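job 3f2a | input accepted
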Amino acid sequence: MARGYGLAKALGNLREEQIFLLDTAQLHIARKNFGTALERAEEARALTPDRDISNVPGVLATCLLNLDRFDEAQANIAKGLERAAKLDEVSDSAFDVQVFVSSLAA
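job 3f2a | predicted structure (106 res):
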């Protein structure tokens, strides 16, 4: 892993570590390395399982969709929306994503 990851981890800064892992996941998505991207996104979620930064569910769903794991993508989006609703952080676009993923899983 890169130097920034080690520094964030050493300092115990979970949010910075989570952001770094998500950035890494998005780089892997751009390179179409969806399995590795999924691993990084899952690591990011594991750091703060009770509260994701806003794009964790979307990154996970992108990976799962590209790996043809539609049911898991749908469940992930639903779980993310449930958490966001509890925190009053749900956007209209989040519901659009849920509808889209649901249509793929059907």
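job 3f2a | The chain has a mean pLDDT of 77.
job 3f2a | closed
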